[in-house]
Specification:
By secondary structure, the protein is an alpha/beta fold. It is built from six helices and 18 strands. Strands 1, 2, 5, 6, 7, 8 and 18 form a seven-stranded mixed sheet that branches. The chain has a four-stranded parallel sheet with strand order 12-11-10-16, covered by helices on one side. A hairpin with a 4-residue loop joins strand 13 and strand 14.
């Protein structure tokens, strides 16, 4: 069994920030990541509100995160954490690959995309239904696609997809957007983006191999329409990835981890940071702040 002073679960902005502060204090830390370091930053085409960058490509920023922690000699392990178990003076972290013993834990797993829950979505998941335009959008170059949502992610990815798609249909269930006004204006000014309001996805249609069209329904008239598209990209919100803590009674009714002002849960030495915690604002910059706060608190205790 691997042993470490601090186990950081999640290699997104919060986890990376925590790891940097811990290593600079010469504390033994193990970073556990189930995918690509950088978290959801990897899935963002452009970031325009992170200090120090007028504009930065998401995967490029994620690479810089990785390079920084790697330069500090951070130990990595890959695995999907299924459970965090508390003992008197330590934690056991169970992954699909191994068990890890740690004195402190920083839980920074982030969030995952909420699904539409309509017929055909699961059947064509990965075969036309995708949750990452940066990852999968280029496969549909020159074709028509559909984006669902009214927040920043939906508008950012619609503009990104419009750069190489024939047509982008952006549908939203109301006429009010949560997206920043600058993103809304950019989408409206893009000739091959068509914004369709008061509309929701009713069904994903395919030929058994791939998506061929999407049936949508106007939620005011109940009128249905069918759009011939090759891909669907839903951005309708996210859910906290906190299942590994479900037995510890540290989350609210929606699954967000409850922490105090130093990012500690009700269980001593179990911290959480980033988008997975209960808070009002979820941005890359706030996630890095959370990670730093948790790490500094741990350095005070280890010293």
């Amino acid at each position: 069994m691997k042993q470490t002073t601090v186990a950081v679960i999640g290699g997104g902005p919060a986890g990376v920030s925590a790891t940097v502060y811990l290593r600079r204090a010469l504390i033994d830390v193990l970073l556990i990541e189930r995918g690509v370091p950088g978290g959801k930053v990897n899935f963002t085409a452009e970031i325009e509100n992170y200090p120090g960058f007028v504009k930065v490509n998401g995967p490029d920023l994620a690479l810089k995160f990785y390079e920084q922690v790697n330069s500090l000699g951070v130990s990595f392990t890959y695995g999907d954490v299924s459970k965090v178990i508390t003992n008197e003076d330590h934690f056991i972290i169970q992954t699909d690959e191994e068990e890890i013993k740690a004195e402190y834990v920083i839980f920074a797993t982030g969030m995952e995309e909420r699904k539409l829950g309509v017929p055909g979505e699961e059947e064509y998941n990965g075969r036309g239904v995708h949750f990452c335009a940066v990852c999968d959008g280029p496969f549909y170059k020159g074709e028509s696609v559909m984006v669902v949502g009214g927040g920043n992610s939906a508008f950012q990815e619609a503009v990104y997809l419009a750069g190489f798609s024939k047509k982008v249909y952006l549908i939203h269930r109301s006429d009010k957007f949560k997206a920043d006004e600058i993103l809304v204006k950019k989408a409206k000014a893009t000739p091959n983006i068509e914004i369709i309001l008061h509309t929701e996805v009713a069904e994903v249609i395919g030929d058994g191999d791939k998506v061929t069209s999407i049936i949508v329904e106007n939620n005011q008239t109940n009128e249905q329409s069918e759009f011939s598209v090759s891909a669907l990209f839903p951005y309708i919100g996210q859910l906290p990835m906190s299942a590994a803590l479900k037995d510890l009674n540290v989350t609210d009714e929606r699954g967000y981890v409850i922490v105090n002002d130093v990012m500690e849960t009700s269980i001593p030495n179990l911290f959480a940071a980033g988008d997975v915690i209960k808070k009002g604002l979820r941005q890359v910059v706030t996630a890095t702040n959370d990670g730093a706060i948790a790490a500094i608190e741990i350095t005070h205790r280890v010293a």
